[in-house]
Design brief:
heterodimer; A: Rossmann fold; seven-stranded mixed β-sheet; globular; B: alpha/beta; Rossmann fold; three-stranded antiparallel β-sheet; binds zinc ion
Chain lengths: 279, 193
């Protein structure tokens, strides 16, 4: 491998800065730590925040899994894997259980994570209060003084309008009974997987230059109301491939007449389950 | 001649950081680095490795040692870190001698809106094991865990507990003995058994 750039592309100076921010993020669960550092050679929207985190954490012994919408084979996932293969010679895996680092956009794997594993989330909008208060100086104060009343008002307005909380993705959570945090655009179905998870969860927003984290065994509670408790999505059918009734399903239209079926969004989980069932 | 730092800056610092990340994420677990660096005598090799990993020309370090010691010259040479005599201005603080332990509230706990601009303390201790001296609970700990850090006084833990009532402001701590270390972020509740 010709080393015209540094291991995992990022220069050591930027890695140090990001590493210090990661430690602070772990020490203050859910708090958005600002970070500096070099720009990555990929456009925003490709997960630069996640790539910077992975580059600062990864070493030669790691096995990296990258998923996008639950799949290991989308264009975004394939480019990120190619990036770390080329710049760091990293071993790639699709198997959740054997991955040491899992970089993700949109999903948390269905297979339960273990202590020692590191999830890296690509975050487009790190500030959960942005839709209520666009000024960053204000949202910093609101987090500082736990002024979260307006967040509850916004969710309650949803209930008044739709009869339920309409948010299905990026559903806000409260971490360690303190910070309100965006879990990134995962379906709310995945929120409970964060609660007291044995794994480390790191969140990176490249454009906004923010890092935040949920350490293992930390309380992560989806915001709700006594009369409108947090509810998970449910599906009428099972996965057409593996028969699963307890995974997040994508609805797929299979022909011109609009025939529909459901398939697991987590492709690795689905293939494994289908293999176990039929072989 | 100046003693050398890491054999490989890139791979050694990655390995040390990775153990430190998992230590900070799982407070009270004892991590170890298998990297043996020959730092000047009053720096334990684990402390040397951690400081080489964390410090650079953007950090400000306070220490209980004199700034003209071989230890400080070695750290400055390999990292470019700036030094300060003012505890409340330090991003990192290094205690090499537990006799000189100070009330942690003399360091910077950050502010309510910016709790991340706080001092991280690194202590060299006289030992480290998992005897039932301190009971730890909080994020990163499934139920409870125990640690024994000889030389750190009960009064120190009491001062820390008072200071951490200002959460999210607070001080994160790393304790080192030889090549082993453990981390106690501000969220960890410490009970003296
Ligand atoms: Zn399936």
């Amino acid at each position: 491998m010709p080393l015209s750039y540094n291991f995992a592309y990022l220069d050591e100076q930027s890695k140090k800065m990001i590493r210090r921010s990661i430690l602070k993020a772990l020490a203050i669960p859910g708090f958005q730590v600002p970070f500096g550092g070099r720009e990555m050679p990929l456009p925003y929207g490709w997960g630069t925040g996640g790539i910077q985190l992975t580059a600062a954490v990864i070493g030669p012994d790691d096995r990296l899994k990258v998923i996008d919408q639950g799949s290991d084979d989308t264009v975004n996932a394939i480019s990120i894997k190619a990036f770390f293969k080329k710049t760091a010679g990293i071993a790639i895996t699709e198997e959740t259980r054997s991955a040491t680092i899992i970089q993700t956009r949109h999903r948390i794997p269905e297979t339960p994570l273990q202590n020692g594993q590191i999830m890296v989330f690509q975050v487009p909008i790190p500030e959960p209060l942005q839709f209520i208060e666009p000024k960053k100086s204000q949202t910093a104060k609101m987090h500082g003084f736990e002024e979260y009343g307006s967040m509850h008002v916004k969710l309650y307005e949803d209930i008044a309008k739709f009869g339920r909380i309409a948010t299905a993705f990026d559903y806000p959570v409260q971490v360690h009974q303190r910070y309100i945090m965006s879990p990134s655009p995962i379906p709310k179905y995945d929120n409970p997987k964060l609660h007291r998870s044995p794994a480390v969860h790191l969140f990176g927003a490249g454009r906004e230059k923010r890092i935040y984290a949920v350490p293992p065994y930390t309380d992560v509670v989806s915001l709700d109301f006594e009369d409108y408790p947090f509810e998970l999505e449910k599906w009428d059918g099972a996965c057409a491939v593996c028969g699963s009734t307890d995974s997040f399903l994508d609805e797929i239209i299979t022909d011109d007449t609009g025939t529909r079926m459901f398939i697991c969004s987590d492709t690795e989980y689905c293939q494994k389950k289908a293999g176990n069932t039929f072989s | 001649m100046m003693q050398k730092g890491f054999d490989s800056e890139v791979f050694d610092s990655q390995a040390v950081f990775r153990s430190l990340l998992l230590a900070m994420a799982n407070p009270g677990t004892i991590a170890a680095t298998d990297i043996n660096i020959s730092c000047p005598p009053r720096l334990q090799s684990g402390a040397g490795a951690l400081l080489l990993t964390l410090l650079d020309f953007e950090t400000v370090l306070w220490t209980d040692m004199d700034t003209d010691t071989p230890e400080m010259q070695w750290l400055h040479f390999h990292t470019g870190t700036r030094l300060t005599h003012a505890p409340n201005r330090a991003g990192f603080a290094l205690f090499t001698d537990s006799e000189k332990l100070m009330d942690p509230s003399r360091f910077n706990p950050g502010t309510v809106a910016s709790p991340d601009i706080s001092t991280t303390l690194v202590f060299q201790t006289r030992g480290m094991d998992q005897e039932h001296h301190l009971r730890l609970t909080g994020p990163g700990i499934e139920k409870e865990t125990f640690i024994h850090l000889p030389g750190i006084t009960t009064a120190f833990w009491e001062n820390r507990a008072i200071m951490n009532q200002a959460y999210p402001a607070g001080i994160d701590m790393i304790f080192v003995h030889a090549r082993r270390f453990t981390a106690l972020p501000r969220t960890t509740k410490v009970g003296v058994c």
